[in-house]
Amino acid sequence: MRIANLSGRAVLIHQGHAVDIAGASSGRFGPAPRAIFDAWDEFTHWSASTELPVGDEFDPAALGPPIPDPRQIFAIGLNYRDHADEAGLAYPEHIVVFTKFASSLAGPEAKVTLPSAFVDFETELVVVVGSESHRLRSLEDARLAIAGYAVGQDYSERAVQLRGPVPQFSLGKSYPAFAPFGPAVVTRDELGDPDSLRITARITGPTAEAQGASPFTLQDGSTADLIFSVEQVIHDLSQVVTLYPGDLIFTGTPAGVGGTRGIFLQPGDRLISTIDGIGSLDNRFIDGAGPDSR
Fold first, then answer.
1. Is the dihedral of CA 187, 46, 135, 66 positive or negative?
2. Which residue, 6, 11, 93, 282, is most buried by CB atoms nearer than 10 A?
3. Contacts of 19 (CB under 8 A, 6+ apart)
4. Are residues 217 and 195 in the same domain?
5. Per-residue confidence of the chain (294 residues) as pLDDT tens digits?
6. What angle do CA 104, 106, 112 make, to 5 degrees?
């Protein structure tokens, strides 16, 4: 299944069309997107046993974040070997966790206002939780707690993130539209192997032109390079917190982030972030820098 948010209503993307879930289920599920995940087991049983209607054509620009109001958003830092290598840091022994605030969520084709000249990018696999989970006993239990997967971007204003006396990860990563994700939540049966997915980020516009190529490839990695697998992340998180249906976990980014190379996003840029089997985010950037942006 591919579950999306079309103009604020939960839909299934089926054969290139959008099927309104509340309509197709005669009001049994939806229309609120998160309500689908609150009734995940019942919903998946219904969808597997129901012949869906053809659905309607839709404008991809009308897609919002598949879950606009998660209870919790977690993000995992330094979780790819090649990213740790480029940063010159040792591989962590335990998951590194921060959060992105819900006001930073956006749909897959969001326009992003740049608050300064120091905004970086991090393409990530996002995992959506499908069942309330605390102190999971095994990695298999963690796998069963997964509803699906999406593409996410963890945009970061590095000056705010790294200013002292201690880093402000969550604050620097939570400007409006700094957490676009989508275009849909894709279930494992449709995705294939989530442990070997290619992740890319390609840019056009002033940043690409400065690098001498447009489009210019910024990131090209694979989930096979994760230090902590998706299941391990969920298992370890659950030892401390209670995970709820619809919670989001940004699972880390592969090598190629801009800060290590002095590359930051500029007004007029267009960034396409893709994970094979899931889809793409298409973000454009506009100038919002104030006089004190440096």
1. positive
2. 11
3. 11, 12, 13, 52, 53, 54, 55, 56
4. yes
5. 999 999 999 999 998 999 999 999 999 999 999 999 999 999 999 999 999 999 999 999 999 999 999 999 999 999 999 999 999 999 999 999 999 999 999 999 999 999 999 999 999 999 999 999 999 999 999 999 999 999 999 999 999 999 988 889 999 999 999 999 999 999 999 987 899 999 999 999 999 999 999 999 999 999 999 999 999 999 999 999 999 999 999 999 999 999 989 999 999 999 999 999 999 999 999 998 654 433
6. 80
13 and 121 within one domain:
no
Last residue of a domain, one of 16, 39, 58: 58
Indicate whether this model's pTM tops 0.90.
yes
Check if the beta carbon of residue 151 is closer than 8 Å to that of residue 275: yes
Amino acid at 36: I
Q: Closest by alpha carbon to 5, among 156, 128, 153, 133?
A: 128
Which one-letter amino acid corresponds to residue 43?
F
Question: What is the C-alpha to C-alpha distance for residues 139 and 88, in angstroms, rounded to an integer?
Answer: 29
In angstroms, rounded to a whole number, what is the distance separating the alpha carbons of residues 122 and 120? 7
Q: Which of 93, 92, 94, 100 is nearest to 75 (CA)?
A: 100
User: Same domain for 80 and 203?
Assistant: yes
